[in-house]
Design brief:
8 helices, 7 strands, alpha+beta, single chain, five-stranded mixed sheet, two-stranded antiparallel sheet, extended
Length: 268
């Protein structure tokens, strides 16, 4: 009889206990998430500072060189310094462009300036922009000879291709071959594939490849430069065009990225 009389009170007590347990678990998960975000923030700031040191140091050296009239008389050295300055300024511009676009919450917020242009010509420009390390043998080839005309934002497509080529070079061994293939499919989709025979992506890292600021343990262990924005930035630009990006990778064998971008006639 006592238990029957207290049944209502016991039920409320049990419900409150479950509620308190839920609140406790939720609080623990929130604290863990905040710690994870703080760790990502600290790592990003450390990496960003490290990445910005190099171009700033190079530009300071270039300015000092230009202040020396005697050294400026050497035409070969002057051209080499100017080339280094342009290269580091391009790197800085690339970093800030990524940071600007990556802060937008939706891909649809990225403004597109579409135009008709030659895709092969753009590919060749992107290959020419690559900074090949002296200790690597890099071969980049374009599959097919067709001069395909496409309609898209030329600057963004260039950024997409350049980022994927840069990754293919960075995440590779001493010798790497990168193959660029493209075609206009019958379903009015432009398909671009960029394949390399680099170090590949570990299975444990593949689910995080397009996450902002994520860097694999392999990249950290090998001290490969980067701020963890390249692939998330590429995905954002592809989605801004209404397209998709996928990849296949085998650790130790290489990676292939495939991009599909609609080429249907319609309003921009």
């Amino acid at each position: 009889p006592v238990i029957r009389k207290m049944a209502y009170t016991l039920l409320i007590t049990i419900l409150l206990s479950f509620f308190l347990i839920f609140c406790l678990v939720y609080q623990i998960l929130t604290i863990r998430k905040q710690r994870h975000i703080e760790a990502i923030r600290q790592e990003f700031l450390h990496t960003m500072i490290h990445e910005l040191k190099r171009p700033i140091s190079t530009l300071k050296m270039c300015v000092s060189f230009m202040g020396n009239e005697q050294m400026m008389q050497d035409e070969e050295s002057k051209q080499r310094i100017l080339a280094s300055s342009h290269n580091e300024l391009d790197n800085l511009t690339s970093y800030f462009s990524k940071l600007r676009d990556i802060t937008l919450s939706e891909a649809t917020e990225i403004p597109l300036v579409k135009s008709d242009f030659s895709l092969r010509e753009l590919m060749e420009e992107c290959i020419g922009k690559q900074n090949i390390p002296a200790d690597k043998d890099v071969k980049i080839e374009i599959v097919g000879n067709n001069d395909l005309k496409i309609k898209a934002d030329r600057m963004h497509i260039s950024n997409i291709v350049c980022n994927l080529l840069e990754n293919g070079i960075k995440y590779s061994r001493e010798s790497v071959t990168i193959r660029i293939d493209y075609q206009q499919r019958t379903d009015e989709l432009l398909q671009i594939s960029i394949a390399d025979n680099g170090i590949g992506i570990a299975r444990a890292d593949q689910r995080y490849v397009f996450d902002k600021f994520y860097r694999s343990e392999t990249a950290k262990d090998k001290a490969i430069p980067g701020i963890g924005l390249g692939l998330s930035y590429v995905k954002l630009l592809v989605e801004a065009h209404g397209g998709t990006i996928t990849f296949e990778s085998t650790e130790g064998e290489g990676t292939t990225f495939t991009i599909l971008i609609p080429q249907t006639d319609g309003e921009d």
